[in-house]
Amino acid sequence: MLKAFFQKKLPTFELEIEFSLNNGILALVGPSGAGKTTILQCVAGLQAPSSGEININDKIVFSSEQGVNIPIRKRRIGYVFQDYALFPHMTVEKNVMYGKPQKGSIPNKVLTVSNVLEMLKIEHLRNRYPNQISGGEKQRVALARALMTEPELLLLDEPLSALDQDTRSTLQQELLKLQVQWQIPFILVTHDLQEAEMLGDQIIKLDHGKQEELRKFDKAQ
Amino acid sequence: MEFSYVPIVLSLKVAFAAVIIVTCTSIPIAALMAKREFFGKDVVESVITLPLVLPPSVIGFMLLYVFGKNGPLGKLFEQWFHTRIVFTLAGAVIAAAVVAFPLMYQSVKVAIENVDQNLEKAARTLGAGELKVFFTITLPLALNGIVAGLVLAFARSLGEFGATLMIAGNIPGKTQTMPIAIYFANEAGDTGQASVLVIIMTIFSFLVIYGLNRWGKGSRRDSRGGGA
Amino acid sequence: MDYAPLLISLRAAIIATIVTFFLGIAAACFVSGYRGKFKGLIDGVLTLPLVLPPTVIGFLLLILFGKNGPLGKLLMSIGKTVIFSWPATVIAASVVAFPLMYRTVRSAFEQIDQNIINAARTLGVSEWKIFWRITIPLAWPGVAAGTVLAFARALGDFGATLMIGGNIPGKTLTIPAAIFFAAESGEMRKALIWVMLIFIVSLIVMTLMNYWTDYQRKMIAAAGRK
């Protein structure tokens, strides 16, 4: 369960956003420079909003009123970066193992590296380095690495934009499956409306910091 | 006259000690300067890198003021360790460390700044604290630059002449390092001793440059493999 | 107070800067265009004075320009000696300053987007014109930084100058040497005046150099964003 409403001053306009999401995928669409990545970074804690509140599973992680700003590493958020940000000096396995699940994680979900690698079909890449694998494979490794921390929320920043059409469709299907499997909310940033319509249970269109709800359907309702 | 190996041994001692000091001090300072913003940072930066452009005799003069018999640190040192710095090998180490520091500092700082910040952010989203991020991501990815800085600092320490002469003097067997031995051997007309030391230093210096150029090319190729 | 060291130092540094300015650009231009297998060797030799101890440079210059050295003999035949005369201070300063000019300019050349040069070629511009109208203007901050660094290094040389120029007051005694000998004989006040002067010059150089590194970083960041 994620509830967020906040403002963030950007150099050319002010971003204003409000959404809530129980389960399923929220797609944020908009042209480049609309503030999509800023929203993700605010939710993750890489940037702080100017004002507002962010609430994950009834825990306030940011509140300008109460002066709360929980550091990023305690927010239990998975983040998949646009360029994947895989650590070039570590093997796939070391990358995936970098973030271990923290204390207080859901006890019945006992994850091993092998589980995760298998689920994403990258077992055979275990000992390779990031510069030895393809773009689609890097994407899977980045997903595996984020999921390994057992996040309560997964943020994906244009995860498929650098991939060719075929790999892209395959990964779109898998993202849908993953969400059903994991039962945590995903927020997906994309500039492609078609992709948003295909993946998003909710779709928010952004333009100059203003939001327009295109679809609202919450699986839990 | 017979060839003396002592200056080589002394030079190596000085260079190793100086490089250890420089490594321990420059990495934390460079990390701080690369990652934090604070008031007066430009001034600090200039002071840190000043020995790079100061003539060695100016550095020597300033070291004499600070570490001399009546200098603030000189007095302190004498109280604690009951020895002087001036005209001892400790003085040579300090001179070498001061001139080598900015070279190491600059290499390390540039290397740290060149580490892709997204990788550090990614590590934070995976639950890593600042220290873990620094030691598992930033430092390993900056390693090439750090090693290059280390080699440069070592070469610079080994070659220090002016400042060393002023603070450590020219005491054969005690503070007479290679560059100083070359000068005084030549003065005294002992061309044989000077030539051997000159040949050693020239070959060593050439290897340093050649090695660093090779290393630079290799590391540039490596670091490109990551991200996109 | 004897001002002769100031004049001697300035003369040496200014002439050396002019010499290295042209030689440095020419060498940088040659090496960045050279694709042969001796590239590493040539670059190594040109950079060598940067890493060599000053006394080694001085010693090698003595061999070259001494009574029995190849260049020394040549000069002798036209009735000139360089050792322990003022041209020696210029030679020493030029040699130690050269690698700084060469390396800074070369890195500035190599940072220029090759596509811009190629675009100029497709427009039918001659290589000579490309060099003066495109390469040099684009590399200008690097050329300026190299010149400033070379000047500072030329002004500050001590060991090499001492070996081939000696320390003849009013003839070859430069400021760095004057500081050394003043401190040596306990005339700390006299040394201090020279130190302050050099200090101010060095601070100016440092500030200019920091501007250059900032500029360079911005260029790299801009190139990475593409």
UniProtKB/TrEMBL annotation, chain A:
Keyword ATP-binding: yes
Annotated keywords: ATP-binding, Nucleotide-binding, Transport
Transmembrane regions: none
Domain ABC transporter: 1-221
Gene Ontology MF: a single term: ATP hydrolysis activity
InterPro entries tied to this protein: AAA+_ATPase, ABC_SmlMolc_Importer, ABC_transporter-like_ATP-bd, ABC_transporter-like_CS, P-loop_NTPase
Record PANTHER family: SPERMIDINE/PUTRESCINE IMPORT ATP-BINDING PROTEIN POTA, SPERMIDINE_PUTRESCINE IMPORT ATP-BINDING PROTEIN POTA
Name under which the protein is recorded: Molybdate transport system ATP-binding protein
Top-level taxonomy: Bacteria, Bacillati, Bacillota, Clostridia, Eubacteriales
UniProtKB/TrEMBL annotation, chain B:
InterPro entries per UniProt: ABC_perm_TupB-like, MetI-like, MetI-like_sf, ModB_ABC
One GO MF term: molybdate ion transmembrane transporter activity
Domain called ABC transmembrane type-1: residue spans: 8-210
Membrane topology field: Multi-pass membrane protein
GO cellular component, one term: plasma membrane
Keywords: Cell membrane, Membrane, Molybdenum, Transmembrane, Transmembrane helix, Transport
Subcellular location(s) of the protein: Cell membrane
Pfam families: BPD_transp_1
Top-level taxon in the UniProt lineage: Bacteria
Residue intervals passing through the bilayer: 12-34, 46-65, 85-105, 133-155, 194-212
Family: Belongs to the binding-protein-dependent transport system permease family. CysTW subfamily.
Function, in words: Part of the binding-protein-dependent transport system for molybdenum; probably responsible for the translocation of the substrate across the membrane.
Name this polypeptide is given: Molybdenum transport system permease
UniProt organism field: Desulfosporosinus lacus DSM 15449
Lineage: Bacteria, Bacillati, Bacillota, Clostridia, Eubacteriales
Automatic annotation (TrEMBL), chain C:
Recorded GO CC terms: plasma membrane
GO MF terms held by the record: molybdate ion transmembrane transporter activity
Principal location class: membrane
CDD domains: TM_PBP2 (cd06261)
Compartments, record wording: Cell membrane
Residues that span the membrane, as ranges: 12-34, 41-63, 83-102, 130-152, 191-212
Topology within the bilayer: Multi-pass membrane protein
Gene3D superfamilies: MetI-like
Stretches assigned to the ABC transmembrane type-1 domain: 6-209
Keywords: Cell membrane, Membrane, Molybdenum, Transmembrane, Transmembrane helix, Transport
Keyword Cell membrane: yes
Protein family: Belongs to the binding-protein-dependent transport system permease family. CysTW subfamily.
Role: Part of the binding-protein-dependent transport system for molybdenum; probably responsible for the translocation of the substrate across the membrane.
Protein name: Molybdenum transport system permease
Highest classification ranks of the organism: Bacteria, Bacillati, Bacillota, Clostridia, Eubacteriales
